[in-house]
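**Sequence with structure:**
===
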Amino acid sequence: MSATVNSVEIRAPSGQEEGTRSQVLRWLKAVGEAVSEHEPLIELETDKVTVEVASPHAGVLAEILKQEQEEVAPGEVLGRIGLAAAAAEPAAASGVAAVAAAEAANETGSGAVIAGRSGGVDGGNQPARGAARADVAPLVGAAPHSSVTPGSAAARQLSPAVRRLLAEHSLDPASVPGTGEGGRITVGDVMRQVTDPSRPAPASSLAAAASSPPRLDAVDAPGASNGPDGIASHRVPHSAVRKRIAARMVESLLHTAPHVTTVFEVDMSAVLAHRQRHREELTRRGVPLTLTAYFAQAAVTAIRAVPEANSRWTDAALEIFDTVNLGIATATEAGLVVPVLHEAESLDLLETARRLEPLVQRARTGTLTPADVRGGTFTLSNHGVSGSLLAAPIIIPQPQSAILGLGKLEKRVVVLEENGEGDEIVVRSRCYATLTIDHRVMDGSRANRFLQVFTERLSGWRD
């Protein structure tokens, strides 16, 4: 933040990784409106999440330099806050009226939900680049009515993103505990309330869903009746972020990295037995022991054997990372998010499980920080949790060199040779593991070696 005699600059966050650019999603105030210090002022959309930028100073929004949909670089000036007392007083009075009018308009317009976002991998597999709280999904139709009336004092204390979430989920703001500055309700607070399994679905929402299908925003409705060959259809406009993700996926698969996928099958019997022995004890200690923790540990073991899997290709050399930062694909109501488990090579199973739990919870409640999604060097996608047996190829998140996929765990009949005494038909809990690689970085034999070590670590798990 830099200041002149009469103004303070509003700058885009500078703590994003190199090469990351943002786009102005929306200004939450208009020029001439009074703003408080730390009040949400602007939403920036990256290819991973939406970052809510707070006002650096109290005053009046004097100038907007970057308009909605314009791209901005880290640290770039977005606008200015006027500090002159003479200007602040009349602006504050007119600002209240302006906010009420804007909010009244917003109640019937389309909006966006802030939540975490995947950054360029299909099947929910890519680490995101930067992110405050999340992802942006277009709403369909008009937002349902909520108890936050446009002119109320409560409404003036809520950002547009929070108001829309409250309206969409028919939540009374009085029922949502606020954890923001001065008790202000944040997007994360609303998302925690929405994902609370004990909260019943609003009756009005259920009735609406049963009576009519989702419709498009009114802007797109005129073209909704006639599709190709007279087939009834409707159009869902792409968000700017979805367009960038699509471009990166195409770039990764068709223009950057020649993808090759190898498939192994994993016997999970030893892991399940180990988990059963220790699950109750760890649960008492507040540490859920998930299969993802085992997969993460085995991935680190495999990376030690095949370090080029944890690397990035450059024209001059292969840059192999000494630290293993695992991106963990996580499904949320708003979409797929990939928080990063940093320095996974330094963690044992217990500490891996301990750190995964809050990381995944922040992803599901939309409270990830930029640090949570930055710096991934290798990605793990446990797509089997949603029923998928096998996914190949999983598109590699650039500039990483490989991505590991785990399919659904299920009991299968297999033929084993037991103790050299002949074949035996047995039932084992097994799943498919796929490794998709950048063929410039390694050959298929090295990918097979990775999965060999990975599967042996899991099938032979010991205390």
